[in-house]
Amino acid sequence: MSHDLVHPRKARAGDHIAVVSPSFAAAGAYPEIHEQAMRRLADVTGLVPVEYPTTRAVGAPPEARAADINAAFADPRVRGILAVVGGEDQITVVPHLDAGLARADPKPFVGTSDNTNLHHWLWGLGISSFYGGSSQVHLGPGPAVDDIHARSLRAALVTGERLEITDPGESEDYGIDWADPLALESPGEREPTELWSWFGPRRSVTGVTWGGCLEVIQWILTAGRFPFPPEVLDGGVLIIETSEKLLPAREVGWIVRSLGERGILGAVDAVLVARPPVSDHASRPVAVDRARLRAEQRDAVVDVVTRYNPEAVVCVGVPFGHTRPQWILPHGGLITVDGAERRIFADYR
Fold first, then answer.
1. I want to staple 321 with a disulfide (CB 3.0 to 4.6 A). Which of 217, 229, 274, 347 is the partner?
2. Nearest-CA neighbor of 341 among 130, 165, 160?
3. Taking a C-beta distance cutoff of 8 angstroms, is the pair 280, 242 a contact?
């Protein structure tokens, strides 16, 4: 069974890009970071950022946040939509979205974490999007925009090229507190990355992606908002990552097990698992314990995936989730996971 997806057309220099807060309005809580992000967004993409009534409105009701997304889809000048950041209540925004507006003029949507809700809503409408990216995390803080993030952001919104997904060699779980003026110019504490871990057959898989933040996927499935048989994912690539909530490896394995019982693991041909955050502002274990926590999550996920689908090609450690630097990946687009050459390519058309 297939699920045909539309790939929205790319923007051109000078087009508008909507900047919205479908979850937490971090732009209002930390405006200096947001304003630096808007300048960098324009510089990196050549697009003109446009804010909406709730972009900076902390605590705006779901109906108002949905109205901004609907307005962005309704405006023909807007050729892309970027979420400020994630959160935890976007699931309450989705019922107020206008499917007709999105179908009438599909636009590339870029967001991560809680924005998994919007990605799945668009996927259900037959519209592809791009998983990753948030202006408040990946554009505003620090001395500059990371190269891999800038390249994939341009590809998602403007160029539509095919890129190899590579390891940047360093990673941070979190940056400097946005309330601290140093956040505008200093990166978080970064450490060298480990080599990606590969499992399964040494073969190459090219398939359509589906997935996002595991915790949010669990909410979406519980709410009955993936009303499709698992066969719609046949031959696809599952992309999964965990949030800054730092779930224990056992609980991550339980969520992945539910995907197995739902038939999702058995349907896909490849699984990409992001490098997980294992520390936050409140707790930073020593290096050996951070490595152990990442390995425990890797082993929990791989154990479950191989139990339900031993023929799946699995790669763990890819930087597309809640760590930084971060690749933005197609959601509903094509990714090649080459288990023989140990390489990954993404098509941003």
1. 274
2. 165
3. no
